[in-house]
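Morning, I've got a small favour to ask if you have a moment. It would help a lot if you went through both lines with me. I owe you a coffee for this, so here goes:
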Amino acid sequence: MSAVRTVLGDIPAAELGVCDAHDHLFFASPVLAGQELDDPAAAERELRSFRELGGRAVIQWTPFGLRRRADVLAETARRGGVHLVAATGLHQAAHYPPELLARVRGRLAELFVGELTHGLRRDEDPDGPAGPVRAGMIKVAGAFHGVDEHARAVLIAAAEAHHATGAPIGVHLELGTAGPEVLELLCGDLEVPADRVILGHLNRSPDLRVQRALAEAGAFLAFDGPSRANHATDWRLFDELAALVAAGHADQILLGGDTTTAAARASTGGGPGMPFLLRSLRPRLEADLGPAVVTKFFVDNPARAFAAEWR
């Protein structure tokens, strides 16, 4: 049976409900020093505010090594009343101490498979015991306008883990670039089906021709992370989505908030946070594209993108 693997166990894909397809409850990186998401109470409040607007599921794309807080994920999901999916995988090298990367080099696929099938390890200890919470997706990253040596190694490991487990692969595209290069490697050389790949941050590079080509290749396209500075990425989003829908790709679009800092939370910072998706973005999209299309974005498409025939 196709199921979504949440931190509280596997559920039928049809039960996922309204979904924030790319976000973070917990996240810490030296790239964002001093802006960590590491407060369980604040995470719970964010989930509750999302649920009050009709939200039912959140996909946390925080991979191994970035303080996912596996120790509190299950209780946070339970108290927040929202289905929560955790990630294994690895981000760009800049987010990690070199010594941690050295410890996992050459055994990434083993680490990813273990976290998908047995449970998440502590972020600072890839050799430690697996906890009770299993990952439900693999998060990886490309480089800016290409695939560097680190990204290639991680993508190869992600493909191995996908073939071993069936897990979907979510890809951070740096400033929205390198989507074609990532798909060429994953779906060409490494034979991952395109509909098992979710390409993130496409709104950061509003190139309609590239977006359409990626959709035609069969991948899911994630538009995530509203600008906190009213950048052009925000208003162009509507034109991008309308163009993709008109081209027949409404079934491949996902939406997320990608909250990566405490300041961006709605409950404890300046926002917009998770509620933005349903309070502000959804009604505007419904006015432009119609409620049926927007239901695909928030409900139907995530249910297919994050479900797997788990092996």
Remarks:
- The chain has ten helices and twelve strands.
- Residues 3-308 form a domain with the TIM Barrel fold (CATH 3.20.20.140).
- The two ends are 11 Å apart (CA to CA).
- Residues 8 and 78 are 8 Å apart (CA to CA).
